[in-house]
Backbone:
């Protein structure tokens, strides 16, 4: 997998539009045969919290040697390894190998051993890619200031519209609360594969969740 597509430049990337970047990445993984044609082995993961302050390491946008940056939210793609190896993380904004095995991504990007104040704890909304590709929409309104000017230049492609005609629902995905975090993994299969907004988990559950998905 890594040998075939280790060059991140093969994928579309507009800085500060990670949700659209991952949307297009998922589509390309499917059309290029890297993921299943219907995307059944890939998941879109939104990372945020109630305070919209999440520290992540090894990010290209950082100006520090350790690559740390404080995002309001971030979006990645995680792919189940059909060959039985660890899941692979596709993070277009990371300086780590592309893709990276989930265990090393967690240790190098999430850094759970680094003790944080509770305001900086990361939460993860995991959405099955086929559902996300049908339901997600963004007209990029979140990237305009009060005068209607762009805070960051938008992608050149047209805004993403959901299959049902919805033009904007990004806030439904990036607004994440610990109160919504799943505590019972016994029902995750139904929720993860049927719910528009997937499931919310805490950072210490990420590896466990994908271990269970791989076994299903």
Residues:
């Amino acid at each position: 997998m890594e040998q075939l597509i280790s060059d991140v430049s093969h994928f579309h990337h507009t800085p500060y539009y990670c949700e659209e970047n991952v949307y297009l990445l998922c589509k390309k993984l499917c059309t290029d045969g890297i993921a299943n044609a219907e995307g059944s082995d890939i998941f879109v993961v939104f990372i945020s919290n109630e305070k919209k302050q999440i520290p992540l390491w090894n990010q290209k946008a950082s100006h520090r040697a350790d690559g740390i940056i404080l995002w309001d939210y971030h979006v990645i793609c995680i792919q189940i390894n059909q060959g039985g190896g660890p899941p692979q993380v596709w993070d277009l904004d990371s300086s780590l190998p592309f893709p990276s095995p989930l265990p090393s991504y967690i240790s190098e990007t999430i850094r759970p051993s680094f003790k944080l104040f509770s305001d900086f704890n990361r939460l993860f909304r995991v959405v099955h890619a086929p559902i996300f590709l049908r339901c997600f929409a963004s007209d990029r309104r979140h990237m305009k200031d009060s005068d209607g000017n762009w805070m960051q230049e938008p992608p050149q492609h047209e805004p993403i519209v959901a299959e049902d005609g919805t033009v904007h629902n990004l806030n439904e995905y990036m607004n994440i609360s610990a109160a919504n975090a799943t505590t019972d993994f016994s029902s995750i299969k139904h929720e993860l594969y049927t719910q528009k907004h997937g499931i919310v988990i805490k950072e210490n559950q990420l590896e466990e969740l994908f271990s269970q998905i791989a076994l299903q």
Notes: The chain has a mean pLDDT of 93. The longest strand covers residues 42-48. The CA atoms of residues 78 and 89 lie 5 Å apart.
